[in-house]
Design a protein that fits this description.
Order of helices and strands: HEEEHEE
Bound molecules: adenosine monophosphate, zinc ion
Number of helices: 2
CATH architecture: 2-Layer Sandwich
CATH class: Alpha Beta
Number of strands: 5
Radius of gyration: 13 Å
Shape: globular
Structural class: alpha+beta
Oligomer: single chain
Length: 113
């Protein structure tokens, strides 16, 4: 989708500070970090949000979680991090391309706001 911000980042049309990439997944620093470590993990293929996922997305969704765990290790935050996706406007989703936030490096409150 040419008008999707994260598709454009995945295509390299918009710069990002990449921390991990493979054929299916890209991960980069959030532009407006909410924690000392704040990484966005996205599938290269466009999906609006998790609620639109179907059975054939199962492998990709699993890969996203495994990538998150790998990234946490590579950044040295594997002992304490949060992985979250905002699904829908009311939940805080502002970019309609599925993404997981990996947050770490400060005390993370529960429940989140
Ligand atoms: P969400 O609000 O859950 O949809 O998350 C979207 C995230 O994308 C926010 O945390 C933004 O700070 C981040 N963001 C927006 N534009 C960019 C960009 N060009 N590069 C990196 N992160 C971005
Ligand atoms: Zn997209």
């Amino acid at each position: 989708m040419s008008d999707c911000l994260f598709c454009r980042i995945a295509a390299g049309e918009i710069n990002s500070r990449i921390v991990y990439e493979d054929q299916d997944i890209l991960a980069f620093h959030d532009l407006n970090p909410q924690a000392p470590t704040h990484i966005l993990i996205i599938p290269r293929r466009h999906m609006d949000r998790l609620s639109g996922a179907v059975q054939t997305d199962a492998e990709l969704l699993g890969k996203l979680q495994l990538a998150a765990a790998k990234i946490a290790v590579s950044l040295g935050v594997e002992k304490a991090f949060r992985l979250v996706t905002n699904n829908g406007r009311a939940a805080g989703q502002s970019v309609d391309h599925l993404h997981y936030h990996l947050l770490a490096g400060r005390k993370l409150m529960w429940p989140p706001g």
